[in-house]
Amino acid sequence: MILVYVCPQCQEIRIVSRRKEVTCTVCGHGMELSGLTFLEWSEMTQEQRKEYGAQWCARRRTKEIKEQQ
Predict the structure, then answer these.
(1) 0.90 exceeded by pTM
(2) N or C: which end of the chain has fewer CB within 10 A?
């Protein structure tokens, strides 16, 4: 199964097939599973992928703030 991961630090997206622990190749931070399927990702343009990464990180930050309150 091909999985799509996002770096919460720099918003980079990475595709992996077998790894459960994924490190960002750009900044070295641990990555998190995005929730996107490989098919959804493959149908996106490069711009849509960047936008998805930015939106994913913004949702994650909002969730973290709510959990801290």
Answers:
(1) no
(2) C
